[in-house]
Amino acid sequence: MSPFDEAIALQPDGEGRFLGRTHPGYANMVGPFGGVMAAQALQAVLADPRCQGEPISLTVNFCAAMAEGEFTALVRP
Questions:
Q1: 72 with 18: CB under 8 angstroms?
Q2: Is it the case that residue 8 has pLDDT exceeding 80?
Q3: Residue range 22-75, pLDDT digits in tens
Q4: C-alpha neighbours within 13 Å on the C-beta side of residue 49
Q5: Neighbour order of strands in the sheet with 11-12
Q6: pTM of the prediction?
């Protein structure tokens, strides 16, 4: 498994919920890189069994750096 695959790996935790963890390979001075966080968000959408269709694009606006460690991704179709 590549470091990127490890970074976007998520575990299901009920309907529309996925558990993830930041990856030290994608961190900088203020926290995880925004691109890998966007990839984790998209991975959660794609992993949800309610997903329909394929994404064409993704725009993410970050208002602050994400803290390192575990997180929960919530998906709402």
A1: yes
A2: yes
A3: 999 998 888 787 889 999 999 999 999 999 999 999 999 988 878 899 999 999
A4: 4
A5: 11-12, 17-21, 70-74
A6: 0.88
- SS3 for the chain is CCHHHHHHCCEECCCCEEEEECCHHHECCCCECHHHHHHHHHHHHHHCCCCCCCCCCCCCCCCCCCCCCEEEEECCC
Q: What is the model's pLDDT at position 17?
A: 98
Distances from the Cα of 9 to the Cαs of 18, 29, 44, 53, in angstroms?
A: 10, 23, 9, 21
Assess contact for 19 and 43: CB atoms under 8 A: no
